[in-house]
Amino acid sequence: MTGPSPPGRSVLVVSLGGTIAMLPTETRAEVTPALDADELVAAVPALSGAAQITTHALRRVPGAHLTIDDMIELAVLIERSVAEQGFDGIVVTQGTDTIEETAFALDLLVSCSEPVVVTGAMRHPSAAGADGPANLLAAVQVAASRAARDLGALVVLEDRIHAARFVRKAHASSPSAFASAVGPLGWVAEGTPRIALRPARRTPCQRPAPGASAEPVALVTVALGDDGRILRALPELGFGGAVVEAFGGGHVPVPVADAIGLISATMPVVVTSRARRGEVLRRTYGFTGSETDLAARGALSGGWLQGPAARVLLTLLLRRGLDRGAIEAVVDYLVGGGEPPLSERPPAGIAP
After folding, report:
1. How far apart are CA 222 and CA 225, in angstroms?
2. What one-character DSSP code corresponds to residue 193?
3. pTM, two decimal places
4. Which pLDDT belongs to residue 285?
5. One of 19, 55, 98, 102 is an active-site residue; which one?
6. What are 284-328's pLDDT values in tens digits?
7. Which residue, 30, 54, 210, 306, is most buried by CB atoms nearer than 10 A?
8. Domain boundary residue among 161, 195, 229?
9. Hey, which residues does 117 pair with through a beta bridge?
């Protein structure tokens, strides 16, 4: 178990908005984004003892308004800031609505070893029991810690340290909203980050070229008696890929299986589970609409990825212009382990 780092560490705090930065206005009691990174940091005097802080206000929007393009821009900013200014860690503040997706995007896109920590708040600054200051302090303490290096992107709320690839928002409004299927990697106690678990290091994905775009990816959840008409309509609606949240271990009704087979001929389809824990099976069931049947129809297994995370991944891969075979290789590597495909390996002499 690992502990603190020496003083004098430097951390960049990047603000995107969200509840942690929201206040009521003179005319409305409802809160909207109002504070930037400077103001968030100024409200937590204890930060001066945690690290040397530099701030950058990148966005001032609700978490629900963030996009994949924002995450690509943020990833570029993070890597440039670390390379040019030598920051020991990065903290990103944003709305909690999309943290599990944005943090996973950063996990895929940022290749530096320095900690990248995403945090936010469930209660705005003017609410009783506002949790933003404590979350920001803990996030900076983790970002400043050498123990948090080489863990990929992290999410820190309520003094718990989560791996971005496993974290989920499991409650709509509770301060204890975030959990991980495998449990947190560690915690913060008396200002000291404790890293108890270290998942295997994974090579990040190659980043799409600046300005690259692709047809959007649909996220469709299967329900009892589903007839598959939404899936059949996706090509006509202009979608370039689909993620299907199936039942249990990756099972769907017969009409949905037929629809998946139909659209798999024109776009990549990734099957995940709508269950919050576990993963899509590969070789257990053999009935129509089972995981083996869907694989035979051309669907890709999303393994343990949740639907929103799989959609982020597929969107980034399509923006790189990868074909179905290359997409399948990257997905299999991320969810199944093993060696990264050639498309994801850094050039010789460059560390991942």
Report:
1. 9
2. E
3. 0.93
4. 98
5. 19
6. 999 999 999 999 999 999 999 999 999 999 999 999 999 999 999
7. 306
8. 195
9. 91, 154
